[in-house]
Design a protein that fits this description.
This protein is of the alpha/beta class. The chain has 17 helices and 15 strands. The chain starts with a helix and ends in an 8-residue tail after the last helix.
């Protein structure tokens, strides 16, 4: 009897879920398109309504995500799994009838972890334990590095002043807050760069960060200097780190041995996947929508960023399936090398340098499957007004609140520094924070219904910019310099280890 009731409840739940989607589709003109009555109707509204309804219905997006995450798995750039994902992306676009190609670019250094182990013992040999660790990307290898383990507090200047000369040649353990949401993630990134800089100045042998994810989940956090880093750096599972700190604060002297085996090397080639639907009227003008295909290898990269890869592919599929022909060319780009320093999108702007004046918009989706609440519009008031117009057909999925500020950390960056109007979807935290770069970033953490709703929003923005008249052009270097000077871009770029490339003239529009 219990089994029969369970099966009945399961069928009922599926029926309700199906009806919910059907209602959304059938009433799209009311639920999606609650016009405010003050702005003229965009002439492409009917196309967006059809497209949104298709995306909200039964599509292949969820199965695409399952195949990418469960069958291919984690996809660090440079890995065999990543190369398989490139071929998978090409196949999915082509199966949808969308022209697709792979485009090569070069990364400065390969970094893949093969194994990571640690042992912590007291100096008198009376206690010891073997906690789990994960190498921080671009950590150097360690073949049995043994050093005193010291309490580095929160890694503030006062903490290193307290340690003084004892920090030199030691492994320093830094306490962290538990991560729960996206604001906490931004704070973690902002603090980490300063901690690492102070530690290296103090002459540490290596840095040990307390894991910030709940339930002892291991995760990756990039070394601040990226491939320029020359120090061993690891994440220590949270409860073991707390135990070590309690022992140190009780007066016990500890030492730690770290073994970190890597597959690391010099420059190598990777690939972006580019799908394209040519424009009917102004095909030389380009609207880009992108999501990054790569992930770190602890989990299977579902929230970061498989769900948005599936979104981008499904948007291309439904435009093609409906026979829609946008005025401008839409490029659907699955970027690679994002986690290693945004190298795929940097490679894109270098490859397409001759076309950049004709890029009308570049948008990026990279915060999991939480509800899209608006967009970061890059400090471009003229773009802000256009986003509002593009979203009119899906106003009922709002409200939307936008932040007209530049943001660094995903694949909009090199477009922004080349003067191209750019957007980044701002999303509710949902499950993103605790699972970010972690072993728990798996298919079951994604909200498939919200993924479909986000696809409808992305469709409105992408198709709107492919249709509307625009008032802006690509910014020149003077305008970009003014954006850097008038915002916190320098601080963000330093945190993400791209500031030096900008100063050296390697990245961004040249004077």
């Amino acid at each position: 009897m219990r089994r029969e009731v369970k099966e009945l409840n399961t069928k009922l739940a599926r029926t309700v879920a199906g009806l919910s989607v059907a209602v959304l589709c059938l009433t799209s003109s009311r639920l999606l398109c609650a016009a405010d009555g003050t702005s003229p109707e965009p002439p492409w509204r009917g196309d967006v309504e059809r497209l949104a309804a298709a995306l909200l219905g039964s599509t292949e997006a969820e199965e695409d995500l399952r195949a990418l995450t469960d069958e291919i798995g984690g996809r660090p750039t440079g890995s065999e799994a990543n190369l398989r994902s490139v071929e998978w992306g090409l196949e999915r676009f082509r199966a949808a009838g969308v022209e697709a190609r792979r485009e090569a670019f070069t990364l400065p250094a390969r970094w893949l972890e093969r194994s990571a182990t640690a042992r912590i013992i007291s100096s008198d040999g009376t206690l010891g334990f073997s906690p789990r660790i994960a190498g921080m990307p671009y950590s150097v290898a360690a073949s049995g590095l043994t050093a005193a383990l010291l309490d580095g507090g929160r890694g503030l200047a006062a903490d290193f002043a307290r340690l003084g000369q004892k920090a030199r040649g030691a492994l320093v353990l830094i306490e962290t807050e538990e991560l729960h949401d996206v604001p906490g993630l931004f704070k973690e990134y902002g603090e980490s760069a300063g901690i690492q800089e102070r530690a290296f100045e103090a002459g540490v042998a290596g840095l040990v960060l307390m894991g910030s994810r709940p339930r002892d989940v291991l995760h990756r956090q990039n070394a601040w200097l990226g491939h320029r880093n020359r120090h061993p750096m690891v994440i220590l599972e949270r409860t073991a780190a707390q135990r070590a700190l309690r022992l140190l604060r009780a007066g016990r002297a500890l030492q730690m041995t770290v073994r970190l085996e890597l597959d690391a090397g010099g420059t190598y080639e990777s690939y972006n996947v580019v799908g394209e639907i040519p424009g009917r009227g102004q095909p030389e003008e380009i609207v880009v929508i992108g999501a990054h295909l790569d992930s770190w290898g602890l989990g299977t990269g579902a929230l970061d960023n498989g769900c948005n890869v599936a979104l981008v592919i499904d948007l291309a599929r439904q435009i093609k399936r409906l026979g829609l022909r946008p005025r401008r060319t839409i490029r659907f780009v699955l970027f690679n090398g994002e986690e290693q320093g945004l190298h795929g999108s940097w490679g894109y702007v270098r490859r397409h340098a001759a076309e950049l004046d004709r890029h009308v918009m570049a948008s990026s989706y990279d915060i999991g499957s939480g509800r899209i609440t608006g967009f970061f519009t890059g400090g471009r008031p003229d773009v802000l007004a256009a986003v509002e117009r593009a979203l009119q057909p899906v106003a009922g999925l709002g409200p939307f609140e936008h932040n007209d500020i530049p943001i660094v950390g995903t694949d909009n960056f090199d477009f922004m520094m080349e003067g191209i109007a750019n957007l980044v979807a701002n999303q509710e935290s949902a499950a993103y924070g605790p699972n970010y770069h972690a072993g728990t970033d798996t298919f079951d953490k994604v909200d498939p219904r919200q993924m479909r709703l986000n696809a409808a929003i992305a469709a409105a923005v992408t198709y709107g910019f492919a249709e509307m008249d625009v008032s802006w052009k690509r910014h020149d270097r003077a305008a970009i310099d003014a954006l850097v000077a008038g915002t916190d871009l320098e601080s963000q770029m330093r945190t993400m280890s791209v500031w030096q490339d900008w100063l050296d003239g390697k990245r961004g529009r040249q004077p």
